[in-house]
TrEMBL record:
Keyword set, alphabetical order: Coiled coil, Exocytosis, Signal, Transport
Exocyst complex component Sec10-like alpha-helical bundle domain: residues covered: 178-250, 257-699
Native organism: Dermatophagoides farinae (American house dust mite)
Protein name according to UniProt: Exocyst complex component 5
SUPFAM superfamilies to which the protein is assigned, alphabetical: PLP-binding barrel (SSF51419)
Pfam family, one: Sec10_HB
UniProt record similarity statement: Belongs to the SEC10 family.
């Protein structure tokens, strides 16, 4: 088929137009193929998309067009690649030509280099020969010149020598010539013998030497003022051979009053000058800095430090040493010539060495005297004369028994009270503590800076030891001792005013401040050294000593509180309160006067304790106090008999006690007083309903069920328990354990009950309180009737009563194969034996509870005739009430 040229041109134009349209769409960034197809279909169908054949034809034409575009571009790429290959070939030809030219140039350069070496060798040889000839000639000329000048000086008459006081030099060049000659003549004159022949010449040379040196220094100073550094450089070079060269170095040391602020800018300024002027700038700069430190700074330090006033001495030493260290750090950072940190630090140590050698001795002496002065001033402000304490003596023994009073024994007047104690004064002060801590803190700061690295830990320990001695022992411990002596005795006849709780509060606060300072200032200085364990041990010893005395004071304070409660109950409570002679039908809803006073007293000290103690200490002390209050009220109620109206009164009283104790927020105490209140309610229950009422919520405990079963004698109870022990032991197949020992818990039991149990075969008895154990073990009747009795201590051990315990108990240092496994009590001893127990502790099931013995009798009597009821002891102080000794108070400490 043949097409005309016009048709082909039109076809090419159409194809080109389509190709340009396609190219514009294909070159979009980013390219979306789906969108391209959508546009192609839309153009073919005018947006209707209802003609499939038309769309298919459009797609086929589009594919043909794209193929045509591809073929066209492929041909263009081939043509461009051919052009690039031709250009690359031409470039390679040029590179080959250039490489050949480079080789030729290199060969020519090597030839020239060899020729230059030959010529240079000849020149050097010629120069050496010329120098060999010229140097002796120059030396000879110079020697001739020196000899001529020296001969002239030898011939100088004495009148000229005496009148020679000033130089007459017209310009600097002449000065330099004269300086060069006189300096050499001066060196020669020093080698001449001491002979009258040369004396005049030597004297003349020395005078002229000094005058020229002085003139050179003046010229250097003038050049420095004019900032003529070229002239300064020439003069410095000439002066380097003179003795006064150091004056030239020191010329820049013009400092103001604030010397430490002026030195760094001065060094920066002079370093630039020194680099330009001197031929050896590093040596000159180090000499300049050395002269500043050993000159200006040392003079400044000596003028400021006053060794007669220790406080001023330590303060100024710390301030100046700190400023000097800061100065050398600034100089080291600027990296001055020849001035590194080690060099500057060594200079500083040399300057302060005389002061630092005696630093720690003066520091500790000052701190010790200052703390003593602070304490003495405080006690003088309180009109108190501090005195030493002696413990364990006759006076302390009497005071512990009868309290603070005066005793006359014959003509001997013994004053048991503390005459130095002012009522309400604790002799503790947070302000004094802060003053001591502040002084110690400043000492530790000085110690850290002024001590040698290897001595920091030891010096810090010495300072902290003074702090412990002054603050903890001389102040806190002394106040605790005074407070101990001021605590009223348990047999006081007036309401006790106990301020020992305030001492505890203040001691705790001061120890908290001390602990905070220890962590912030002492610990960082000793933490990574061998002194750490020594310091911690010493601190722990001091704290434990104070804690032991605080615990002793708490015990005495609680004993005093309990003593006053007993006194109120004994003197304010009347028998008619619980057994009125005339009964009426009115319901009694008020408590007795004695109860109201006791509750008011308890509330007062409850508030004081919660205010003065914190954390677990409050809970422990209130628990101990509450248990002892419970025991006191329990023992008090046992002394009375009740009729119906009296029972109502005692229920009201116990309710008031319970409400008071509930404020303590101690679950154990609430439970104890709830049980006490529930038991008191039994006093108004008719005998027929007693068993039913005893199953109430408060009376279903194992202890009560045991007491319900214990209307037997002690012998019968022991037989029943031993039978249960045997049955429980035999119930374990092939039991590998030894046969269990029955330990009768006899706390707060009378000696008659103990003797009764002993006579029925019981040999092992356990006590919860050391004092009670000691009294029973040394009772003559018990010793006589119970020769083989074995005592056991099963309660908490108090440090101050340990000696009494050692006299009684015998189970110390037992062989390992004889060690007992003691577990199991009244309600669970059978289960404990099955688990391997070799010793069970039983009290209630042996000795019983008096209240039930009284209540069981009521079953055969009418209510009207059953007015004699008593509240027992053991139940209220049974397993739920075991709390022995005051809780250990812990001072605030992070260690």
């Amino acid at each position: 088929m043949h097409f005309s040229n016009e048709f082909l041109c039109v076809a090419h134009v159409v194809i080109f137009s389509i190709a340009m349209t396609f190219l514009a769409e294909l070159e979009q960034d980013p390219f979306d193929g789906e969108e391209f197809i959508e546009r192609l279909a839309w153009r073919a169908t005018n947006g209707k998309f209802d003609d499939v054949d038309l769309i298919s034809e459009a797609f086929e034409n589009g594919i043909k067009d794209l193929k045509a575009i591809y073929d066209t571009n492929q041909k263009k790429c081939e043509r461009l690649e051919m052009i690039c290959r031709e250009e690359e070939k031409g470039h390679w030809i040029k590179v080959t030509e250039l490489q050949q030219k480079c080789k030729d140039s290199l060969a020519t350069f090597e030839k020239l280099d060899k020729r230059l070496d030959i010529v240079a060798d000849k020149v050097v040889y010629l120069g050496e020969q010329l120098e060999g000839v010229n140097t002796p000639r120059m030396r000879a000329v110079e020697a001739q010149k020196l000899m001529q000048h020296f001969a002239r000086y030898l011939e100088t008459p004495s009148e000229t020598l005496n009148s020679f006081e000033e130089l007459y030099i017209e310009n600097v060049n002449q000065l330099f010539e004269e300086a060069d000659i006189i300096q050499k003549l001066y060196l020669i004159s020093q080698e001449l013998p001491n002979n009258s022949k040369f004396d005049k010449a030597k004297e003349f040379i020395s005078k002229k030497y000094n005058l020229i040196e002085k003139r050179l220094i003046e010229e250097f100073s003038q050049a420095q003022k004019n900032d003529d550094r070229n002239k300064m450089k020439k003069i410095a070079s000439m002066l380097s051979h003179f003795k006064g060269y150091s004056q030239c170095v020191d010329m820049g040391m013009f400092l103001g009053e604030n010397i430490f602020n002026d030195i760094v800018p001065l060094c920066v300024k002079n370093q630039k000058t020194i680099k330009e002027v001197f031929t050896n700038p590093e040596q000159v700069m180090s000499k300049f800095v050395l002269n500043i430190f050993h000159g200006k700074i040392q003079e400044f330090i000596q003028a400021r430090i006053n060794e007669n006033d220790t406080r001023e001495f330590l303060t100024e030493l710390y301030t100046l040493f700190h400023k000097t260290n800061k100065l050398i750090e600034q100089i080291a950072k600027l990296k001055f010539l020849g001035c590194d940190y080690n060099f500057l630090n060594k200079i500083t140590r040399n300057i302060f060495n005389n002061y630092l050698d005696m630093y720690i001795q003066r520091e500790t002496n000052y701190l010790r005297d200052k703390c003593a002065y602070i304490l003495q001033s405080y006690y003088e402000s309180k009109n108190h004369q501090k005195r030493p304490f002696t413990t364990g003596g006759f006076q302390e023994l009497i005071q512990s028994k009868i309290g603070r009073t005066n005793i006359n024994i014959g003509n001997l007047n013994i004053n048991i009270s503390n005459p130095d104690y002012t009522q309400g004064e604790t002799f503790l002060s947070e302000e004094i503590a802060i003053s001591i801590l502040q002084e110690t803190k400043m000492s530790l700061q000085r110690c850290h800076l002024l001590s040698k690295q290897q001595d920091i830990a030891q010096n810090a320990l010495s300072i902290y030891e003074i702090e412990l001695q002054s603050l903890c022992i001389e102040h806190i411990d002394y106040a605790i001792e005074l407070g101990l002596q001021a605590i009223p005795s348990a047999e006081t006849k007036s309401q006790p005013d106990i301020h020992f709780f305030d001492i505890i509060r203040q001691s705790n606060e001061i120890c908290h401040l001390n602990e905070k300072q220890f962590v912030n200032w002492v610990l960082p200085l000793i933490s990574s050294t061998t002194k750490y364990s020594e310091c911690i041990k010493r601190k722990r010893e001091v704290y434990q000593q104070m804690e032991a005395k605080l615990n002793q004071g708490l015990e005495k304070s609680i004993a005093s509180i309990i003593g006053w409660i007993k006194y109120l109950l004994q003197n304010e409570q009347k028998k008619t309160d619980f057994k009125p002679e005339q009964e009426n039908d009115d319901i009694i809803t008020t408590s007795t006067i004695a109860c109201n006073k006791v509750v008011k007293f308890i509330n007062f000290y409850h508030n004081r304790i919660t205010k003065c103690l914190d954390g677990k200490n409050v809970q422990d002390v209130l628990t101990d106090l509450g248990v002892k209050i419970h025991r006191t009220i329990n023992e008090h109620l046992q002394q009375y008999q009740f009729n119906f109206m009296g029972a109502m009164v005692v229920i009201c009283d116990v309710k008031e006690y319970r409400n008071c104790i509930d404020k303590f927020k101690i679950p154990l105490l609430s439970k104890l007083f709830n049980i006490l209140h529930a038991l008191c309610n039994l006093l108004i229950v008719v005998p027929e309903n007693l068993k039913q009422v005893s199953n109430g919520d408060q009376l279903v405990s194992g202890e009560f069920r045991c007491m319900m079963a214990l209307s037997n004698s002690i012998g019968e109870n022991l037989a029943i328990i031993n039978e249960k022990i045997k049955k429980a032991y035999d119930g374990v197949p092939n039991n590998p354990n030894k046969y269990p020992t029955l330990l009768a818990v006899s706390k707060i039991k009378s000696k008659e009950l103990i003797i009764d149990a002993y006579q029925h075969g019981q040999r092992h008895f356990g006590e919860n309180y050391i004092q009670e154990l000691y009294d029973k073990a040394n009772d003559p009747e018990v010793i006589a009737k119970c020769p083989e009795i074995k005592w056991h201590m099963i309660g908490h051990v108090q440090t101050n009563k340990i000696n009494k315990l050692l006299e009684v108990c015998h189970l110390f240092n037992k062989p390992e194969n004889e060690i007992e496994l003691s577990m199991g009590m009244t309600t669970d001893f059978e289960h404990a034996i099955a688990l391997g127990s070799t010793m069970v502790r039983v009290g209630t099931a042996i000795f019983g509870v008096p209240i039930l013995q009284g209540l069981l009798v009521l079953r055969t009597c009418s209510w009207i005739s059953s007015s004699n009821r008593s509240i027992g002891t053991d139940f209220f102080c049974g397993n739920n009430a075991q709390h022995n000794g005051v809780a250990n108070v812990k001072l605030k400490s992070n260690q």
